[in-house]
Amino acid sequence: MAVKENKRILIMDDSLALLKVLTQTLTQHGYEVDTAPNGALGLQKVETFQPGLAIIDIMMPEMDGFEATKKLRAAYPNVNIVVFSAQPAAVVEKQAFSAGADLFLQKPLREPVLLGIAKKYTATEIGEDEEEHETILPYDPDQPYTIHVRTCYFCGCDHVNFFVPRKEGYEESWSNGLYPVYTAKDNFTKWDFMRTMVAVCPSCLFASYDIKDFAVDSRHTTFPYSGDAKRILARGIATRKKMVNVENIETAFTNPNRNLNRVTDTFQLAEKCGNGLVIGDKEGVYCDIGFYTAMYAVIRYSQNQDKFEFQNNLRDSLELFMNQLKIQSMTRVTRAKTYYFIIALNMATGASIRANEMKQDLEKFYMKIGGADDATFEERLWNERLLHIWKEGVNPEVLRDCTW
Question: What is the structure's pLDDT at 78?
């Protein structure tokens, strides 16, 4: 049996204080959380949020936990349900299981218990006929990248080409402090990673640099954003196509040798109207837009060598990363990535005092939570990059060497 994860958790409880505590705990450990103060509103959110786990309190106004559990189980049998209550288990546990709960827990919930059930009930076994199948096109031994054929979550187009560097073919470096540089190893052909960093759906022009924003298998496309986000994106398809005036969209956006203007277009699409980011309902929304803006600045600078425009574009990117810090419920990985770019961009624009202040803010954050011993691999990676640029500095002048 294979295992698939759905790390979206919906919590229904009429205590706003408890919702806040549970949300902070779960988001810090990589889960995406939505909440509802009663069962009626919670059931409305299930359709758009599509959680893998629902945690439901029993005593709630409008619709109690028993009724919410019964209706949720009938309409969405694949959603795991954990019911919890301050009432004694002897009084309510049997009724909770009769309503369709997978587990009953007594309040208050200790953090290790909460994280334990989150881990258990957001991973489910799937049969062989339901397994997702990764499609990777055939490639030559000296080809430094593979092409993954993905499905667009938005429109269902199942031939989105996503270019992924082969670990054995390239070395990744963040030594310049602003964007990754890939250098081909011996016996591998050269490839300009910047040309294909952003993947674009040739049908609706959904755009992203994160392969997770495209579905592995067309049979299992579950759009990760809200219904409102879908509708707004639908209205934006025509706008996106006007932004990119090209006859053969599929060729333009999937060709690894596309020209500089087309590469610039892809970053503008991703920044302005791709990925649902304009909705603001995606983890790391400002962080992602800030990254696109920084990369667009790099591309423009390599083309025109206009340092004044380059600095202004970097400052625009910096503002977006600063907006990300205003969002309280973000994961530690996103926080580490955000601080990395804030500090690097301040160093690149000559604001060394501000860079030092932000470095101290990050150190205070880790002191507040008791250190970073439980950091994930990705979080440690961003912190290691930060230590490197703090020691070596940021040198945007190396961008002059960009070739197209």
Answer: 82
329 secondary structure, DSSP code: S
Return the number of other C-beta atoms located less than 10 Å from residue 319's C-beta. Answer: 12
The b/e string for 214-236 (b: 16+ C-beta within 10 A; e otherwise) is bbbebeebebbbbeebbeebeeb
- The CATH number given to 2-128 is 3.40.50.2300
In angstroms, the CA 111 to CA 73 distance is 26
User: Rounded CA gap, 345 and 296, in Å?
Assistant: 14
Question: CA-to-CA distance for 77 and 25, rounded, in angstroms?
Answer: 26
Query: DSSP secondary-structure letter at 109?
Result: P
The secondary element (H helix, E strand) that includes residue 368 is helix 352-368
Is the confidence at residue 174, as pLDDT, over 90? no
Q: State both tokens at 259.
A: 């020209």
Give exposure, 4-28, as e/b (b: 16+ Cβ within 10 Å): eebbbbbbbbbeeebbeebbebbbb
Strand partners, 145: 165
The reply to whether omega before 256 is within 30° of 0 (cis) is no
Q: Are 315 and 344 in contact (CB under 8 A)?
A: no
CA nearest neighbour of 214 among 295, 301, 134: 134
Question: What are the residue ranges spanned by the domains of the chain?
Answer: 2-128, 132-273, 283-404
Distance between CA atoms of residues 394 and 355, nearest Å = 11
pLDDT tens, position by position, 66-105: 999 999 988 888 888 999 888 877 778 888 888 888 888 8
From the centroid of its chain, how far is CA 46? 20
* DSSP type of residue 75: H
Reduced DSSP (H G I as helix, E B as strand, rest coil) percent helix, strand, coil of the chain, to 5: 50, 15, 35
At 247, which helix (H) or strand (E)? none
Residue 29's pLDDT is 84
Q: What's at 84, amino acid-wise? A: F
Q: Which carries the bigger pLDDT value, residue 85 or residue 399?
A: 85
Q: How confident is the model at residue 157 (pLDDT cuts 50, 70, 90)?
A: confident
Q: Residue 363: which residues within 8 A CB-CB, separation 6 or more?
A: none
| 365 pLDDT higher than 80 | yes
Q: How far apart are CA 217 and CA 135, in angstroms?
A: 8
Q: What amino acid is encoded at 117 in this protein?
A: I
Rounded Cα–Cα distance for residues 163 and 198 (Å) = 9
Tell me what pLDDT residue 278 has: 43
Is pLDDT of 222 > 60? no
